[in-house]
User: Fold these one by one.
Assistant:
Number 1:
Amino acid sequence: MTDWTDSTLTTWGRSRYARSAVIAPDSEAGLLEAVRGSHARGAITYGGGRCYGDAALDDGGQTILTRNLNRILSFDSVSGETVCEAGVDFAALLKRFLPEGFCFPVSAATASVTVGGAFANDIHSKNHCAVGSFGHHVQWIDLMLASGDVVRASRNENADIFQASLGGIGLTGTVLRVCFRMLRVPSGAADATYQRIANVDDMFDTIEAARSTHDFIFGWVDAMARGDKMGRGVLELGRYAPDEDGVAPPPPIKPIRIQPPSAFLHPIVLKAITNRRFNAVPPEGQSARVGLGPFFFALDSMPGFNRIYGRRGFYSIHTGFPRETQRDGIRKVMEALTAVRAGSFAAVIKPMRGPGDGLLSFPMDGMAYAIDLPRRSGVEELHRNIERIVLDHGGRLYVAKDALMQADSFAQMFPKLDAFREILAKIDPDARFQSDMSRRLKIHPEAARH
Ligand SMILES: Cc1cc2nc3c(=O)[nH]c(=O)nc-3n(C[C@H](O)[C@H](O)[C@H](O)COP(=O)(O)OP(=O)(O)OC[C@H]3O[C@@H](n4cnc5c(N)ncnc54)[C@H](O)[C@@H]3O)c2cc1C
């Protein structure tokens, strides 16, 4: 096993950095050694680093990288049951299993997410209405606790640890192995239609009508549109394709290496870009047969996309609202954004069909709306306004994207937090696993008392 080395780590949003002692074990024995090395500021596990904020960072502490725990251990070609180490990423899953007719059931919009990271945030995708979130497909995990013991946790065995670890942002321990079911797919492609959406009401009506008819539902929202056009965008509806005939070639890859000057983020420039994107879809709509790689991992067609907001990085505000309040809540969020002319390339909307099985899982029966915003003056105040709107509508913010939420808001948004704390008190009373996020959100039982 290699030694601890000092390193500076960041995550996708590049708004948060941590100086930390880092280690990348390649075996269970190596992980045990890492977990046993004690440190006052604890340790956190780091997978692909594709969370946006501070969930995988531990400034002044220790970080356990899972990149060398990357073996696929078994696969049942009848049931799709797969066992792999937690550092396996979604690119590896697609490469290995698509030729055998299987695909992951749920993914993020980038292939660099690891299976451990997908579990630790119980990720949801544009097919949430059809298949739920990642945790719904997980049979069991092997988790190394703070004590160094490895426990198997499932819905039947150590069920409390399973529920706490699913969406538990790495605070219950390091997930070593995950057993989940890959999905048999008819081909390596999806049939997608793209239609223009006139405004926020049109967006909601069209999504609601598609909830039970399509496998995939995903709206890109023109965050620069105001007034009658607020909430306009392009809605993608998709199904798995019966075959791969006529698959559209993936878009050319142009890595973004530069960090554009702030003038590039001027509202006039952003508006020109979002107009272009809206108008790229003809008024009558269009359809395409797309390979599953580009279909799932649209953002990977622009490597370095996270540099586009400049040197100071960016924030994502990823909201979720229950069905009863989703329309009013998301409308108010859009109004708050347009009132201050907050500029962004990326705002997206996705329906969700119900809760995840984790105590801190984000999904619910309702709608998710997320926007990326450059980190500049005024954005923190805007975040506070949106946090208030979300609370007033019984919604929540997604910790995978978060860097700014306040601890008392978090406690209100996640009513099972006390149950989570009870389990932490039992399995990790000294808070061996902690992160910048867990301290900011006062997640540990001791921190909650101050
Ligand atoms: C371009 C892009 C698109 C995205 N799209 C979506 C999306 O569509 N839906 C969605 O839900 N999310 C999405 N995300 C967020 C992403 O899926 C989550 O943040 C995911 O957790 C990142 O996984 P990771 O392997 O990079 O984990 P990291 O970012 O390294 O860590 C995230 C959390 O998981 C914990 N963790 C990681 N590995 C382990 C382990 N082995 N054991 C215990 N804890 C662990 C970390 O401690 C941390 O708390 C997107 C992110 C990006 C950058």
Number 2:
Amino acid sequence: MLPVAFLLTMLATGCSVQAALSGLTADRAAAALQTAPSPDYTPSGVRIHRLALGASNAYLLENQAGLYLVDAGLPLTDGLILTRMEELGRDDLRLIFITHAHIDHYGAAAAVREATGAPIAVHRADAAAMAEGNTELGMVRDWEWSEDTLVPLLEDTIQIDPVEPDILLDDGASLAEYGLDAVVLHTPGHTPGSSVLIVDDAYAFVGDLISANGKPHAQSMYAQDWPQLADSIARVQALDLAWAYSGHGDEPSSGETLRTLEARFADEPQQ
Ligand SMILES: [Zn+2]
Ligand SMILES: [Zn+2]
């Protein structure tokens, strides 16, 4: 009798240890999720797809209500965007959100609209530049002569098809009516209408406000208004963000990285 009782005890102990272990694993997984939210899915189940379009990134956001495109690459990248939609097996693009009126972010917007019927939304302060086919680069940092020579040369050289937006956005605009839990944060400086799209209060699509080329850093090349840009970065840093997705660079930046990056430059008046 004793060996049987012993075996039963062992089995019971084994089972309870196993149960305790699996409980522990689940707890650990939950803790890990709490400390490091997924960069691929938001808490409400929006799936984030990065589209590497060569010169810049676009993002396809996917939920049950539809697809949403954040930025639209250089001209002629519409094929890559539409192919990715096909791979996802979806043709229900509901909105094209443009972070700002630079050619590497709205270049293929009109072609994607043509193919899908989705409207183009941009902050109203960048609407005119897009509608005129402009890509105003502003001042290149530390190249004083650039404002007078290089930038106008670039701006005159690059010929872009005008893109008339369908929806003009303001700070605080909600995309809920399109089926996405997202709000627009106006973050001017790089361009007057530069805006960040914040999904589920914590997943920010930051355009060129923050670059993830190499070590994540504040926009340091082009701005139309540097002090304004610094204020916009500070505004984004004050939010409790989980991830930031940049227009350039391969990886999203964590909220922690974002909060600690240098937002102002030494040669800039502190405000
Ligand atoms: Zn830009
Ligand atoms: Zn860019």
